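Observation: inputs received (chain + N-oxalylglycine).
Thought: call the complex predictor directly.
Action: predict_structure
Action Input:
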Amino acid sequence: SLTLSVMFTSLLNVRQAISIERQLIDLLETYIEHESERLEDIKRFYAKVSDLHSEVYSGPSASMANPLVAFTLIKRLQSEWVNLVYSNEAQENTQALRSGYEEVEEEEGYFPKLEDLQGAAKGLMRLQDVYSLQVGSLVRGQFKRINNGNLIDIYSPIISIPLSGDDCFLVGKVAYEQEDYYHSVQWLEESVRLFRGAGGEWSPENEGTLEDALDHLAFSHFKTGNVSYALSLSQELLNYDPMNRRVSKNIEMYERLLVEYPPLPSAHTELKRPKTTYLRTRNTYERLCQTQGTQPRHYENPRLFCDYFTNDSPGLLLQPIRREVLSLQPYVVLYHRFISDSEAKSIQDVAQTGLRRSVVASGEKQATAEYRISKSAWLKETAHPIIGRLDQRITMLTGLNVQPPYAEYLQVVNYGIGGHYEPHFDHATSASSPLFRLNTGNRVATFMIYLSSVDAGGSTAFIHANFSVPVVENAALFWWNLHKNGQGDGDTLHAGCPVLVGDKWVANKWIHEYGQEFQRRCSPNPEE
Ligand code: OGA
Ligand code: FE2
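Observation:
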């Protein structure tokens, strides 16, 4: 249906997928029971008939004279064998399994599609890249980073889930189909290793085989210039599949190439990661996702301080907020314990049914994008009494008017596998942006509340300011997006790092320029 959205963009849908699989397990259990009964019946018939042959028919001919022996023998040959051999029971059992499966697939709006699988595979590769994860350890279910030749654990899962040769084949194939041989080589290498280790054991659930993995791996190596390796993999493949003409032709071509252009012994080309649009800031972005940048040294700067803050609001006098000034240019502060556990949970619950794949401004329109992978919902004040209370609290803290149309509705975001938001500005950078539709100017400030913790990853990184904020559950991050003259502040370029492990939820309140004139001029923005 049209409301279907992509599963991998939100962890919530992973939970729904778990309940889908539970239904399939029940179906399979029934199927196994019926098939076992069927096989038991066949074995009983087999035992009965073969016993007759060893005990009665091979005995003295006197027993053959028994009319009952003759009758039952003829009856079996005339009727029983036919019934057994042409029984429909196996098909009926399979049919019941299939129609049960199809029912689940049709009824469940969250049944994953090919697109979801590909998205999840891309999510894994994104995590591999951004956190410099070693593929070999990932395949063993561990999260380790290569650092100057050493492997360091960056997260230790309670249960490690190793990947199979077929799992790796799938990830490698997704990369291969995008002509991304940097990733396809690494994942298919693991796939071939695991398939070889399984000794060519066939599993009915697998999509690929050792031959398929060798085929894709050989071609990936050829595309990246490693012809001699492509040749030896193809020769191995031909051993398993001697009649494969395409492979024999490739082998001829590789041999010819090696004669015409013999590889230099020193020529070892390091494979490069495929380019992305954000290449310019990619290194800084990834470093900030892996570390906090300059953030841990903030205590050395007396102008970056912590205090109990009331903003002279009567409503905060008895319960000041813990304020942590993180950066002066751009001006970024973190308000600790802004929201309570139960409020955060309620907002997640209210948002759940409204979650849709997040979009970004694309010219005058909005569109989904690889650089923003999450699901989001917009909550009006009427959606739950908590929303209005949060609006009031934001106003008390910032002095800003957050009533529509001076601010947007609350946007609740849930990130999925490898979910992220690559470096971007929250404010509009072109006059035709859909953000101007409210007719209240640009997004002057961002108030972002962390509604959850995460187990690893998911920091908010400020690229030019060289720091990142790890997810602090129940805290809120505030910054000005515009200079006081209304121009966009380029230093606010920021990103949501990919979530490595966990279920990250944030809520954004975007406050617009109009209706804020007094606060805008008089509130701190020390560098201006
Ligand atoms: C955003 C954003 C950062 C984060 O939603 O615009 O920048 O850490 N999010 O989720
Ligand atoms: Fe943002």
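Thought: report the result.
Final Answer: The pocket of fe (ii) ion (ligand 2) is lined by residues 424, 426, 494 (CB under 6 Å). The longest strand covers residues 443-450.
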